[in-house]
Amino acid sequence: MCGCKNVGGADRAVRLVIGIAALVLAFTMLGVTEGAALGIAAAVVGVIMLLTAAPGMCPLYLPLKLSACRVTRT
Q: Which residue of 19, 25, 53, 66 lies most exposed, with the fewest beta carbons within 10 A?
């Protein structure tokens, strides 16, 4: 494991792309500012993706005992 981090580099990159794309869609096409349900859902997904990518930690991985980090052995 990588200490308290459980999201690896590739996983983080995918989360960043999905997070940014979801937020852009929410604000440009899905009507989050008008209170549209689909826009709100997309915004929530985008925020969650960015909040898990930034620190490199996904709380959902903990109970599942998953990790996308590479294990470095010395």
A: 66
Residue 36's contacts (CB-CB under 8 Å, 6 or more residues apart) are 30
User: Which tokens hold the place of 67?
Assistant: 């990790």
The residue among 58, 50, 41 whose CA lies nearest residue 16 is 50
Ordered per-residue pLDDT tens for the chain, 74 residues: 455 788 888 999 999 999 999 999 999 999 999 999 999 999 999 999 999 999 988 888 888 888 888 765 55
Half-sphere exposure of 65 (CA within 13 A, CB side): 0
Residue 47 CA to chain centroid, in angstroms?
A: 7
- Secondary structure element (H or E) that encloses residue 52, with its range: helix 37-53
Whether the predicted model's global pTM rises above the 0.85 cut: no
Domain span at 47: 9-64
